[in-house]
Amino acid sequence: MKLYCLSGHPTLPCNVLKFKSTTIMLDCGLDTTSVLNFLPLPLVHSPRLSKLPGWVSKDGSANLQKELKECAGRVFVDSQPEFCLPEYIHRELLDLSTIDVILISNYHCMMALPYITEHTGFTGTVYATEPTLTIGRLFMEELVNFMERVPKAQSATCWKNKEMQRMLPGPLKDVVDVWAWKRSYSIQEVNSALSKVQLVGYSQKVELFGAVQVSPLSSGYSLGSSNWIIQSHHEKVSYVSGSSLLTTHPQPMDQSSLKNSDVLILTGLTQMPTANPDGMLGEFCSNLAMTIRAGGNVLVPCYSSGVIYDLLECLYQFIDSANLGTTPFYFISPVANSSLEFSQIFAEWLCHNKQSKVYLPEPPFPHAELIQTNKLKHYPSIHGDFSSEFRQPCVVFTGHPSLRFGDVVHFMELWGKSSINTIIFTEPDFSYLDALAPYQPLAMKCVYCPIDTRLNFHQVSKLLKEVQPLHVVCPEQYTQPPLTQSHRSDLMLELQPPPMPYRRCSVLNLPHRRRYERVYILPELANSLVPSEIKPGVSLATVSAVLHSKDNKHTLQLVPKPPPVAPSKKRKRVLEEPPAVLAPKTLLSGAVPLEAFLATLQNHGFTEVKVEETADGHILHLQAEDTLIQLEEDGTHIVCDNNEPLRTTLRDLVLRFLQKL
Amino acid sequence: MDRECALLLPGVCAVLAGSGSSLPDDTSLEKLLDWFTGITEDGGSLLETCPCLLKLISTVVHNAASDPGVLSFTLRLTGLLAATEESFKTIQEHPVLNKVFNLQHWQEAGLWEDPCLRIGWIQGLRSMLQHPKALSFFVQSGFIDPLLQLQTDTSLFIAEAANQMLAHILLFFQPVPPAGCKGMDKKEKGDGMTPSSADYTAVVKSISGYLKESLVPKESKNVRQSLQTLKLLALLLAQAGPPLRDKLLQTVGDSLEELVTAGSSELTLPLMDVILSACSSGTDERITRLLSSMLNINKPADLIHAAAAFLRRGHHDTVHTARAVRILLLPLDIMTGQTLLGTISTADEHQFSVVEQLKSKSSCISMICVCLSNTPQITLTPPDVLPCLPVSIVTAVLSLLRICSGNSPSSSTGCSEVSRNVIGSSKVQKCALEALTTLTSSPGAKERISEVFTVLIQYLENPDSDPTVLHKSYQALLKWTSVCTDFSFITDQLRHDLVEVVKKRVCDMRWEVKDSTVEFLGHLAGVCDSIKAAAEERDASEALLGDCSTTPLLREALQDSESYVRASAISALAKTLTHRWQQGATLTEEEPEIVSRLLEILSQDSEGFPRRAVVQYFISWYSSHSPPSSSSSSSSSSSSSLLMQSVRSVLSQGRADLDWEVKVHTLVLAELLLDEAFSGHPGYKKGSDSHHASPHAYGVVSEQAYTLHTHTATHTEGAESDLAVVVEQGVVSVLLSGLVDCDRPVALKACRLLITLRETVCPLSLGALDASAAMATVSCELPGCGWGREILKILKMKKSDQAKEEDIADQSGLNGAEEGGDSVCVSVCEALRSLGLDERMEVLTQSSDHIHNSPLSLLQDILTASATHTKPGEEVIVDCY
């Protein structure tokens, strides 16, 4: 069993598991933090961004004025943003065309799918739940839309030159594998990639070539999010990714099915172990109210699904108590409408109390009511209807949380200069300081309330204590306290035995050895067996059969009888019978008890016996006959020179003590 | 005992003797007993006045089918009857006494199993054991052993009563009462009351023997017995005189030593109690040694509790105090890495075991909390006892607070394995904040004030802080502000942070947080005012919050959806503005807006708290404003006119409120107006009511005796115009409507004020004609419905009484009252005189259940209940008072 680790990002994993004869990819997250090195893509012409000075090295030797721009002391690439893909192109770690299946755990962890299914010769199947596919598609469409509606003519590549890169200032200088960065995929690629997805439901068992069975379990993190169980008859591997124990909108996490795993691969813990989601939600609301009361606007850069549902639900309860009833809330995204509507129809994927609402004449999420009462309005973009209905002060939810593309760029330019406005970061994926870097100097107030509902270290320790896997594999980041808080020994995994850490490009030999394989036996053959009891409760029988293997299924079948001799009119040679199947030799079992054996020898006239103890047993020297009998745990040897009768006698004596099957 | 009761009692006794099942409710026997106890305590002899009781006792005791409740009552009654030596002798002449307390009898009857009977037995004996004869009886009957057995009864109440009883016997009959013996009423114990020393010696011998035996648990299951015994011993040692104390210590000394050595965790605290009780009543080498061993036991958790118990007792003994202090500071030292104990830590092994203990989360939290709650006291111990400066303890608490919030810098040298146990624990946070609040009084603490503020602001800022933690942080901040004299340490950054966090917290999702923030703003204004008054320093509020005015925040909070927050905002606004009002400052733009919002709340809010707060707002405004006459500036008069205008609306709305507290507050406001109108008047008695002392008028009957003013001085000058002003302001309407209010506290308060008013403007001592001549011109209007009608009814009734007496058949109208449409005008003076205020006052001062609470009523209830019981089918309605 081997694990290939293609991503170093603990919450955007991409691992490949080779298990029995299958090759399974577990998630294919796309690390989008690389976009932070690029300039934002404004929706309308931004004089500020277009006037940024080009970058020239101090000694003037490197001139990349066209590709790199300087803003507030940092250098940004002026080109269409690019993403850092999972590791597969330059290192010959693994041939991705050999991947049999890809298992997706949630819609955040599938964003690299088109790169893999469309460019590596992949011919397998992708498994995901319905909401994961639907919302994943929305995310991909949104990403493509963000990129394609503001096309950049040029594509910067010179800066990637090794010699050039070495002269760049940090952090550009230190980024690795820039050549592997890729621009966004196209909508065709998205469609093609998603056509390879096969839908599964929680606890549904999918057979892979008869070798293993995979099955998704609810992970409680987002709509349709799953952990996976990969098991054969004798081995069980659990893949835990992005799980949550908080009661938000999704179905609660299924923990009990993870029990008795041989190996548990643990990824997607909270990125904000010190920020408790409840506290952050409170912080979010109070900062929002504070800004609105002071007459300012609030900008919330966020993804178009997930935490936003919880934010809206929380605000639904909060706005009345905080007297914000008249403040408009806007949700702007190319997929805003679909996201809000889809969330209401995935009844079977929701938590219990939302599910029960489906049977009442009210929608499970209160955002429907916010829309009905005109408190929440959603638009595909800032162009069109929005511009005519836009009222301030207001609250705007829009993407992308990296602040590099999407409608959020426009609002940053619009509101950034006034200190009465506030930007509240709720997504934990990007460092807010880096996200804000190309907008500096910024007067707007910034509040960082990352809401990450994924498991924290406390919860995961408790979980592991309950499910008790034999081995745990996790990203190396989880095995030490965070760099900035080295004294917080409570923010790491402490297990016995210690977890096996992995990093990008690791190949782990999972410590679990396969020892058994299930073989079926046909009833007829089973009938013919004659078990003999070798110790109480344990019976053995010998079997002669033909082992038939197909689709990783092994069956013992009767030895085919020779075709009956065709009755011929003429007598043929009598001897032409098929060679009789040799009766199998009887098998011996048991051990020769030394004392009793010596007594027997004595009875049979072997009197001069010298016993020597060896590492494995005993050597009996029959001095008169000059013969040795070696009694060992797994064999008995009789060494005598050319005295066949003696050997036979001795052999028979030995056999008296052994059981025959 | 009055005659009526005496007449009913035999009947009641018959009922009780018959069967107890017909009692109206299960408290009647208790009430009956209370009544008897009261009579006995007043010196009455029940035996003489109610011979039927003795009969009752003998009947009940001989009736095997008696109800256990009645039996228990009988036992206690017997004890009560035999409480004096004389009556004891009388009872002893009857054969009943032996029977009543005869254990064997009860056991054979199978009634001893009932806990009711056992407790009756103990309490009966306890009442009786007030004289030597009783003790002799007790000893001769051999009751001491059964009593000792009851000490470990399965019922906790019985076990406790037995313990008390044992202590009572030993302490009450001590041969020489020590001078400072507390708790025991010795007045009845005259000469000749000394028990025969043989009896007492016997008792002491058996009890102390028992103590010695039962102190050390033989098996683990006997721990409860040891616990009980230790409790008893602590009771005894705290009050015993020297001979008894020495005797006891001599007997149990070895057992105590054995217990200390055994070191059972369960027994640590009770054992410590015993040792400390022994210490407090005298010094003894052996006890000192025991104390030393207690402060050296091996189990860290027990040790900490023992040390804390020692410090709490305030026992001053340098060696042991120093030891206790070290024990209590050690966990803090380990956790924070602050060297509180210096480097000469001798007990390394002990430290090791403490660290081990602290590694477990639950014991770590409990130990640290004990340490923290003792830190304030530790800092106050003499410097030669302290291993470090008091200020280092403040530093340690601060650094613990940082660790708790996860903000501790990594350079801190505390044990990380231990400190992770307290990260995020709100229990420890609360404990530490409480300690920090109290530490303001520690010597040198002020040096750390800047650090304190930083940490507290961090706590307020922390999104994960529990609402109660935030509340405690605010309290700590206020306390530290109040002791602060110099605000120069507050940097702009600190100020900015505080302002931001307060602004954020008034928008919090949790109403508790909003409420404590708003409250904090109010208190801060109060604290700042008091600082300003003390020293003409820089404005503390300004120092803390800069130029951020808190009024807009509070005004916003007036709109809050939670009534508590609205109420707190209103009182905070009052506190914030008090200073301006006192100075007679000009009206700000926002004040009229605030006032109109407040009046809106008073008339529309569905919750009582905000409405009460509104009336109190105007009370504090009215009482702190400077009267317009003294200040001539026009700005101040505009403020005054706004005040007077709104006070009028408050009076008329508050009067009609549904909440009785609002109405009482409205009356307080009315009183302030009366005070102002008549303060210069010779007959006016200001503060006729004790409203300052008790904000909760309900159930509190003022003890202040009401005295009629008997002055006859001329009073007419000016009073007339003042009265007219008061009427015009609506004060008289408030008082009159209050008088007929169905809530007693309201009516009581109104009645008092009306009497004061009457005594001022038209005292009864003056002839009727005299008064009416002077004041007849001032009249007030009564509405034709509601309270107005009520008042009119009273007036008419009085009038007709008068008419009958004077035999004048003119009942068509009211003299001095003119009917005009729906409303009616009455002369104020006339009304004041004819409302019968003094009679009304008398009725109102009695508590509402005075009729139903009387012994007579109780006896009647019992009789009625039994009557209906014998005639089934009729339901009895029992008074539930």
UniProtKB/TrEMBL annotation, chain A:
<dbReference type="GO" id="GO:0032039">
    <property type="term" value="C:integrator complex"/>
</dbReference>
<dbReference type="InterPro" id="IPR022712">
    <property type="entry name" value="Beta_Casp"/>
</dbReference>
<dbReference type="Pfam" id="PF10996">
    <property type="entry name" value="Beta-Casp"/>
</dbReference>
<protein>
    <recommendedName>
        <fullName>Integrator complex subunit 9</fullName>
    </recommendedName>
</protein>
<dbReference type="GO" id="GO:0034472">
    <property type="term" value="P:snRNA 3'-end processing"/>
</dbReference>
<dbReference type="GO" id="GO:0090287">
    <property type="term" value="P:regulation of cellular response to growth factor stimulus"/>
</dbReference>
<dbReference type="GO" id="GO:0090101">
    <property type="term" value="P:negative regulation of transmembrane receptor protein serine/threonine kinase signaling pathway"/>
</dbReference>
<dbReference type="GO" id="GO:0160240">
    <property type="term" value="P:RNA polymerase II transcription initiation surveillance"/>
</dbReference>
<feature type="domain" description="Beta-Casp">
    <location>
        <begin position="308"/>
        <end position="436"/>
    </location>
</feature>
<dbReference type="Pfam" id="PF21382">
    <property type="entry name" value="IntS9_C"/>
</dbReference>
<keyword id="KW-0539">Nucleus</keyword>
<dbReference type="GO" id="GO:0160232">
    <property type="term" value="C:INTAC complex"/>
</dbReference>
<dbReference type="InterPro" id="IPR027074">
    <property type="entry name" value="Integrator_9su"/>
</dbReference>
<dbReference type="InterPro" id="IPR036866">
    <property type="entry name" value="RibonucZ/Hydroxyglut_hydro"/>
</dbReference>
<dbReference type="Pfam" id="PF16661">
    <property type="entry name" value="Lactamase_B_6"/>
</dbReference>
<dbReference type="GO" id="GO:0005829">
    <property type="term" value="C:cytosol"/>
</dbReference>
<keyword id="KW-0963">Cytoplasm</keyword>
<dbReference type="InterPro" id="IPR048660">
    <property type="entry name" value="IntS9-like_C"/>
</dbReference>
<dbReference type="InterPro" id="IPR001279">
    <property type="entry name" value="Metallo-B-lactamas"/>
</dbReference>
<comment type="similarity">
    <text>Belongs to the metallo-beta-lactamase superfamily. RNA-metabolizing metallo-beta-lactamase-like family. INTS9 subfamily.</text>
</comment>
From TrEMBL, chain B:
<dbReference type="GO" id="GO:0005737">
    <property type="term" value="C:cytoplasm"/>
</dbReference>
<dbReference type="GO" id="GO:0005634">
    <property type="term" value="C:nucleus"/>
</dbReference>
<dbReference type="GO" id="GO:0006974">
    <property type="term" value="P:DNA damage response"/>
</dbReference>
<dbReference type="InterPro" id="IPR038904">
    <property type="entry name" value="BRAT1"/>
</dbReference>
<protein>
    <submittedName>
        <fullName>Integrator complex assembly factor BRAT1 isoform X2</fullName>
    </submittedName>
</protein>
<dbReference type="InterPro" id="IPR011989">
    <property type="entry name" value="ARM-like"/>
</dbReference>
<dbReference type="GO" id="GO:0008283">
    <property type="term" value="P:cell population proliferation"/>
</dbReference>
<dbReference type="InterPro" id="IPR016024">
    <property type="entry name" value="ARM-type_fold"/>
</dbReference>
<comment type="similarity">
    <text>Belongs to the BRAT1 family.</text>
</comment>
<keyword id="KW-0963">Cytoplasm</keyword>
